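Margin note: ligand = flavin-adenine dinucleotide.
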Amino acid sequence: MTTTYDLIVIGAGAVGENVADYATRSGLKVALVEAELVGGECSYWACMPSKALLMSSTALDAAKAVGGAREAVTGELDVQAVLNRRDSFTSNWDDSSQADWVSSAGIDLIRGHAVITGVKEVTIDGTVYTATHAVAAVTGSAALLPDIPGLLDAKPWTSREATSVKVVPSSILIVGGGVVAAEMATAYQQLGAKVTLVARSGLLGGQEPFAGELVGESLGELGVDLRLGQSPTSVLRTEHGLVETTLDDGSVVVTDEILVATGRVPRTGDLGVENVGLTPGEWLEVDDTLLVHGTDWLYAVGDVNHRALLTHQGKYQARAAGEVIAARALGKPVQAEPWGAHVATADHAAVPQVTFTSPEVASIGLTADAAAKQGIDLKVVDYDLAALAGSSLKSDTYKGQARIVVDESRKVLVGATFVGPEVSDLLHAATVAVVAEVPIDRLWHAVPSYPTVSEIWLRLLDAYGRPE
Ligand SMILES: Cc1cc2nc3c(=O)[nH]c(=O)nc-3n(C[C@H](O)[C@H](O)[C@H](O)COP(=O)(O)OP(=O)(O)OC[C@H]3O[C@@H](n4cnc5c(N)ncnc54)[C@H](O)[C@@H]3O)c2cc1C
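Resulting structure:
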C-alpha cells in the first residue's frame, strides 16, 4: 500500500477535488482524503440542494408574472416533486459517481478522518502517510451554534437538516439574517411552512442596504413573520415536541422546528493542527498562494481559510493552489505577482456572490460603504431596474434596483449590485468589468442587446455621465 505522496489533500469537497485535480494534471502524485461524502457540503447540504428547493417556486413565480402564462398556472407547487428533484441533485446522498471521477482523474481516494500528526505527516485511521512536498487542508466549515440557553437541547436544525428535509414542517423559526437564513426563509415559506425569521440587525448585512430592504419587503409579502432587531434569549423543546423560543422583547414564538443560520466555524477542531503549532478551531490564515502563514508546506484552501466562503471562489483558489504546489515541487517558476497564475488576487476585491432569494441579489466587489471606508474617491450611480423595456417584458410586476460604484481617480468600476428577478445572469459582465478594470469610457462601447435587462448598463452609464 502506498503511504507516500507528493501532496496529501484533506477534504474532498468541491475545493479539495479541484486542488487534487490541478496538482495531478501538473504532474504530482496526489492522495485525497474524505471522512464523509466526496463532493462535500456544496453537493449534498448547501449550494445544490438549497437551490433545488428554491428553483421550482422561482419558475412558478416567473410564469405568474407574465400575462398569458399566468392564466395557465392553475395548480399549486407540488412539494413532494420539489423534494424528489432535490434528491436527484444530491444523488440521494450517494457519492459513488464523484468517487469514480476521482479515480478516473488519477487521484488516490482515501476514505477516513485525517489528522495532521507532524510536518508533512498525516495519520488516517491509524495509518501514517507522508507528503514529500505539501499537505493541503481543505476541510471546509460547519454551522456556528450560538450560545443561547436551551438551544442545543432543543436539537436545532442547521443548514444540513434544512437542505436535506424529507417532510416540510408546518412552522419553523429561522435565526439569522444572512444569505442562508434569507434563502431558507424564502424556500420554506414557498414550500408551505409558516416561517418566522429573527435577525439581530437587518437582512443581508455586508451587501448594499437596498438589497436587504427589497428582500425583506418580498419576504413580508410572501407571509414570513420578520422580527428584525431581535435575538432569541432562550429556547425550549417542549414535551409535545414543539420549540418555544423567547425573544429579547419578551415574546415567545412556538414552532415545529428551529433553524440556526448565524454563521460558520472552521473545521479545524479535530484536524491535529496543534501538532504543528497552530490553534484548533481557528481559521487557517494564508498568503495569496494559499500557503498557511509560518509554514512552507501546509496550504489551506476554500472555506477553511475564511477568505470567501463560496464554492466558485474556493475552486478559483484551488487552481492557484494546485498549480503553485506543483510548480514549487517541480522547481518551476512561480507567478506570485498580483493577478498571476498562482495567486488568488480576486479574493481581495472581486468576489461575485448571488443570493437566490426572490428577488435575487447579485453583487461583485465593494459596496459604496466599503469603498468609502477604504478612502476611495467614489461616485455611486443607482438605477431602477423596472424602468427598462427588457424588465417590463420579463415580468408585469418587475421590481428591482441596480447600483454601480465607480473609483473616480481611476474611472473604473469597483463594485456593482443588482436586485431583481434573475439578475444573477447580469453579474458576470460586472465581474469582468471589475477584474479587467475596464475604463468607463470603454464600457460605453459594450452595447447591450435590446430589449434585455442588460440595458441596465446603458442606463447606469447615462446616469453616470458622458465622458468629456
Ligand atoms: C446552505 C448553504 C448554501 C450555500 N449555497 C452556496 C451557493 O449557492 N453558491 C456558493 O458558491 N456557495 C454556497 N455555499 C457555500 C459553499 O457550500 C461552501 O463555500 C463550499 O462548500 C466550500 O467548499 P470546501 O470544499 O471548502 O468545503 P466543504 O464542501 O465543506 O468540504 C470539506 C470536506 O472536508 C471533509 N473533512 C473535514 N475534515 C476532515 C478530516 N479531518 N479528514 C477528512 N475529511 C475531512 C468534510 O467531510 C468535507 O467533505 C452555501 C453554503 C451553505 C451552508
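The mean pLDDT is 97.
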